């Protein structure tokens, strides 16, 4: 971890001088690890969850050189702004925009940047295993770890649930397999191809940035391998507070894959399958009275996007035109990712 400079907390401006490592343990780890590592977390509207995750990361035996947190307003990083082991920066709201700010902040002195959701809890060996894969495989451009449990699938997990899963999981062998895209809740990227080819998360995918991980993975995969690292484990809590309103997410479930087809970062077959699976899931959830998810709001968004497609109006940014969420929708936009 590092101590932030006085200019580390600011709005959409240049990042200040590179921080200097301050932990003896981190320094010892750096000597054994030739790659310079940073962890980046984009968060919005969930300060207590963010702090709980940062506290957990700060207590791990293996530390990255830097831990960078980007929030749209400083109150979203309550309890972190004055800590010497965390760099807090403020950027425009939206997952893609905030992750781009993290890339800018890390660019000068980082080899591998690991993006974590604010509710992803990595195992103690996660960082070292990712570092080993990137060090041993110079052709790897992007990697994702093994998700032992994903609360997004069943209503969410608590930190105690996650710790229990991590404690009881057997430590598997490190295996590297090819994958179509990294899972955005834990996504490690080599910065050299990003900087060399001026790659960035697509800010035309606003707010939640649905499928931003697919888009970015396929963009960087032109310059290296995209892999999954078995043995680099973690748990995704899938906390439901502050998530994307149902209508907005439902619209993105249709409009964003279509946008990626046109952009060339998602095949037509994969995108159509994705759209169909989401619509069917929302219809089935509505039929069986799914109370965990706003299926009506999502289906409404699906149908609106399909209608917009017929008149060539569909666009990911259209969700910014939507008004306040209905009473059945969750209260605020989230920038947490989901399994595709």
Automatic annotation (TrEMBL):
Belongs to the glycosyltransferase 2 family. It holds the Pfam family Glyco_tranf_2_3. InterPro entries: Nucleotide-diphossugar_trans. This is Glycosyltransferase. It is an enzyme of class 2 (transferase). CDD domains: Glyco_tranf_GTA_type. GO terms for molecular function: glycosyltransferase activity. Residues 1-20, 321-340 are annotated as: Disordered. Its EC number is 2.4.-.-. It comes from Rhizobium brockwellii. Keywords: Glycosyltransferase, Transferase.
């Amino acid at each position: 971890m590092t101590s932030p400079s006085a200019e580390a907390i600011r709005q959409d401006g240049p990042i200040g001088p590179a921080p200097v490592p301050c932990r003896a343990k981190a320094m010892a780890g750096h000597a054994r690890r030739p790659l310079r590592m940073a962890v980046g977390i984009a968060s919005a509207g969930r300060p207590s969850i963010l702090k709980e995750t940062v506290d957990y990361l700060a207590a791990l035996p293996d530390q990255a050189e830097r831990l960078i947190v980007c929030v749209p307003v400083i109150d979203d990083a309550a309890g972190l702004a004055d800590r010497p082991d965390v760099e807090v920066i403020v950027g425009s709201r939206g997952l893609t925009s905030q992750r781009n700010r993290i890339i800018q902040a890390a660019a000068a002195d980082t080899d591998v940047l690991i993006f974590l959701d604010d509710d992803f809890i990595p195992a103690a060996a996660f960082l070292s295993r990712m570092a080993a894969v990137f060090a041993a495989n110079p052709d790897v451009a992007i990697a994702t770890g093994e998700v032992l449990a994903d609360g997004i699938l069943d209503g969410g997990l608590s930190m105690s649930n996650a710790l229990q899963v991590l404690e009881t999981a057997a430590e598997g062998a490190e295996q590297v397999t090819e994958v179509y895209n990294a899972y955005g809740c834990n996504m490690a990227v080599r910065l050299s191809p990003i900087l060399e080819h001026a790659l960035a998360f697509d800010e035309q995918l606003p707010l939640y940035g649905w499928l931003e991980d697919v888009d970015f993975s396929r963009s960087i995969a032109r310059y290296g391998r995209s892999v999954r690292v078995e043995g680099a484990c973690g748990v995704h809590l899938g906390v439901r507070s502050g998530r994307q309103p149902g209508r907005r997410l439902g619209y993105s479930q249709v409009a964003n894959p279509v946008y990626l087809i046109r952009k060339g970062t998602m095949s037509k077959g994969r995108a159509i399958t994705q759209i169909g699976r989401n619509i069917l899931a929302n219809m089935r959830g509505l039929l069986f009275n799914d109370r965990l998810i706003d299926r009506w709001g999502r289906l409404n968004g699906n149908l609106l996007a399909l209608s917009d497609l017929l008149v060539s109006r569909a666009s990911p940014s259209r969700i910014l035109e939507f008004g306040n969420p209905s009473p059945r929708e969750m209260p605020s936009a989230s920038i947490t990712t989901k399994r595709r």
